């Protein structure tokens, strides 16, 4: 029996994939070099050697910018998956002697910035002092896109049931989306409001009220739940500052629907009561990563720590739900 020699293909290396992926993400060789921590001449030289070895041009200059060729686009399309696998393998080897180094880049929505993220970073730093941690505040659509582009490793996001533009659906295809917990929505009312004495508030009772709306996604949720209750709310004030929302409600100029998580870092005025809705409205808190990223020890440690914060979250939720 005669064995047929395997066809010879140009040899690819992880560094070339990282560089091409960075050029696709950053839009220029200079920005790619900065993102990777290399000099611009070193990246240009590596790219030229890779093109000579492959026999294909990977990038071409267009004015002052650089555009990937068709071959470059092919490599960029596979770069994230392949470099993740390399990182996972290297990480597992490093993990044999414990997580003594590594990097994790986080993103999260504004409320998470003052609640979940400080606890997460504190726990991670205590358990893994050699781990380098960075954080970017971003609303869910931008955070999901940052994970897809490779500029972020782990994103903490949220979604509302029935959200027509939920970033965890079509735009998150090819990513891993895990649900962390349900964040109950509460109605913020002046203590003198007739509905303040109820254990749970029926939104139908609030049809004639003036409302204070939050971020665009929160505003969309308010419109959706009040529509289900049979009316379109009168929204006179809009702010994503929850201290301002509660201040306005305390002044008696409007009422609001606020997530429990927001109360963990916001002082609730004495004249405000917080009540869950009769239908138990809530939003879901998610964690988003690329597929296979959990094999990278730094990402795995982050996910494990996030899940271990459940008890602290429940305590925050109980404190918020029982407020006056």
TrEMBL record:
Respond yes or no to whether keyword DNA-binding is given for this record: yes
Q: Which Pfam families match?
A: HTH_1 (PF00126), LysR_substrate (PF03466)
Q: Does the keyword DNA-binding apply?
A: yes
Q: Which UniProt keywords apply?
A: DNA-binding, Transcription, Transcription regulation
Which residue range or ranges hold the HTH lysR-type domain? 12-69
Which PANTHER family would you find in this protein's record? LYSR SUBSTRATE-BINDING, TRANSCRIPTIONAL DUAL REGULATOR HCAR-RELATED
Q: Which family does it belong to?
A: Belongs to the LysR transcriptional regulatory family.
* Protein name (record): LysR family transcriptional regulator
């Amino acid at each position: 029996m005669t064995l047929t020699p395997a066809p010879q293909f140009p040899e690819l290396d992880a560094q070339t994939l990282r560089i091409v992926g960075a050029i696709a993400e950053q839009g220029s060789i200079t920005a790619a070099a900065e993102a990777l921590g290399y000099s611009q001449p070193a990246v240009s030289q590596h790219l030229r050697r890779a093109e000579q070895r492959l026999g294909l041009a990977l990038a071409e200059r267009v004015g002052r910018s650089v555009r990937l060729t068709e071959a470059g686009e092919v490599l960029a399309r596979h770069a994230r998956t392949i470099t993740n696998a390399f990182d996972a393998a290297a990480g597992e080897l490093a993990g044999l002697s414990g997580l003594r180094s590594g990097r994790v880049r986080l993103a999260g929505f504004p409320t998470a910035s003052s609640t979940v993220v400080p606890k997460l970073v504190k726990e991670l730093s205590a358990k893994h002092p050699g781990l380098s941690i960075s954080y970017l505040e971003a609303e869910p659509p931008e955070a999901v896109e940052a994970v897809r582009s490779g500029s972020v490793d782990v994103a903490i996001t949220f979604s509302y049931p029935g959200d027509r533009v939920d970033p965890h659906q079509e735009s998150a295809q090819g990513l891993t989306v895990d649900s962390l917990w349900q964040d109950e929505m509460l109605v913020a009312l002046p203590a003198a409001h007739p509905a303040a004495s109820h254990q749970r508030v029926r939104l139908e009772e609030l049809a004639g009220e003036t409302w204070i709306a939050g971020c665009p996604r929160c505003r969309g949720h308010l419109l959706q739940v009040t529509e289900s209750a049979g009316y379109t709310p009168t929204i006179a004030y809009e702010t994503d500052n929850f201290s301002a929302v509660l201040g306005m409600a305390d002044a008696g100029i409007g009422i609001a629907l606020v997530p429990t998580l927001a109360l963990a870092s916001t002082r609730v005025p004495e004249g405000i009561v917080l009540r869950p809705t009769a239908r138990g409205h809530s939003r879901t808190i998610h964690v988003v990563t690329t597929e296979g990223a959990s094999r990278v020890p730094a990402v795995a440690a982050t996910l494990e720590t996030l899940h271990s914060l459940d008890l602290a979250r429940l305590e925050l939720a109980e404190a918020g739900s029982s407020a006056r």
